Amino acid sequence: MTEWINRTLRGSQGQFPLTQNVTVVEGGTANLTCRVDQNDNTSLQWSNPAQQTLYFDDKKALRDNRIELVRASWHELSISVSDVSLSDEGQYTCSLFTMPVKTSKAFLTVLGVPEKPQITGFTSPVMEGERMQLTCKTSGSKPAADIRWFKNDKEVKDVKYLKEEDANRKTFTVSSTLDFLADRNDDGAVVSCRVDHESLNSTPQIAMQVLEIHYTPLVKIISSNSWPEEGQSIILTCESKGKPVPEPVLWTKDGGELPDPERMVVNGRVLSISFLNKTDNGTYRCEAKNPIGRNSTEYVLIVHDPNALAGQTGPDHALIGGIVAVVVFVTLCSIILLGRYLARHKGTYLTNEAKGAEDAPDADTAIINAEGSQVNAEEKKEYFI
Q: What sign does the CA torsion over 159, 160, 164, 166 have?
């Protein structure tokens, strides 16, 4: 008898129920499993957070069509709860009826799925320079969902985020506001609000809004000829971009109408001028307008003389010849001035040496008489030479 009791005690000591926490999306199915490695025909039981028995072994105890038996044996008791609601969240208990009773807890977490987001605050169209405030909002998330903004697939970081608890005190309503000034570069851009949440299985919910921005025309003139010459033709194209689309452009010359309609032909945004001449020189203006405003740009036309251009092919040689003549002239002048300077210097020296012998017939005599010594005459004469 004692030996049997000891075996029973040793067996009961190894018995212990094992459970795992479960997370399920609202509306989904939760599977609760309780296992026992060693069991000597001891009963297992599942009960809900309100301590109501759901199943005792394979016998259903609570009348709830959402709760079903999955598996019942001496080693396992598994049940399922379908169409899970937020109220099903809580701590479930698996009990093993040994002496004493052993239990294990499993917490059921129910995720609240956020509603499809909506973008509000956009009125179409928006004028360039106006402030835009777009708000993205979603409710029913648990825990609170995350909202991110994108403009043409590029994330916008500078946004405001607000989280509020719903009336059921279990889920949250979150909103985010994107605030910016309307710019013409945003026309046609796709602004999207993306809601990320763990209940969405990595598939975010997205709301999109295409921006429509109205702005004044942007005008540019493109010339077909960068060096127009007399007798040639030129085509000036006025490119205008605006929203709404600008009306047909207006071409003027020097502030007035085009002076020669026969040679100056306007076709839509294109001005064609044939048989160019010097009278066509001037400032041509292209103006475009739409209901938002108007804008213009100018092009200065200079018609070149092809003959004057050809005559300028040889001026390089004439220029070089002129430079050479100037250099030669300066050189000759320098030589003449240097000769005159040397001659004057020589006369001055002889005159100073001949002081006191004004009637000397020549330089040699002046040198001899000025010193008063016949002996030194040859030395001075030799020095002079």
A: negative
Question: What whole-number distance in Å separates Cα of residue 85 and Cα of residue 26?
Answer: 5
Q: How many Cα atoms sit within 13 Å of 382 on the Cβ side?
A: 5
**N residues, the chain:** 385
At 183, list the tokens. Answer: 């710019």
Task: Calculate Rg over the CA atoms of the chain.
Answer: 54
Please state whether the peptide bond connecting residue 49 to the residue before it is cis, i.e. omega within 30 degrees of 0: no
The CA-CA-CA angle for residues 19, 25, 29, to 5°, reads: 60
Give residue 193's identity as a one-letter amino acid code.
C
- The ranges of the chain with pLDDT < 70 are 1-14, 309-322, 341, 343-385
Give the residue among 196, 18, 25, 197 at the shortest CA–CA distance from 108.
25
Token pair 């002239």: residue: 329
Distances (CA, A) of 349 to 118, 337, 343, 367, 372: 112, 19, 10, 12, 19
In which region does residue 169 sit, left (phi positive, over 0), alpha (psi from -120 to 50) or beta (all else)?
left
**Confidence (pTM):** 0.66
Three-class DSSP category at 343? helix
Q: Where are the alpha helices (DSSP H) in 191-314?
A: 306-311
Instruction: Scan for tokens 């609202």, then name that residue.
Output: 26
The answer to whether 106 and 19 have CB atoms below 8 angstroms apart is: yes
Q: Quick one: pLDDT at residue 322?
A: 67
Q: What is the pLDDT of residue 134?
A: 96
Name the nearest CA neighbour of 163 among 145, 149, 178: 145
3-state helix, strand, coil in the chain (%, to 5): 20, 40, 35
Closest to 36 in 3D by CA, of 108, 101, 107, 109: 101
Residue 297 CA, chain-centre distance (Å), reads 28
Q: Give the per-residue pLDDT at 323.
A: 78
Residue 278 to residue 12: CA distance in whole angstroms: 116
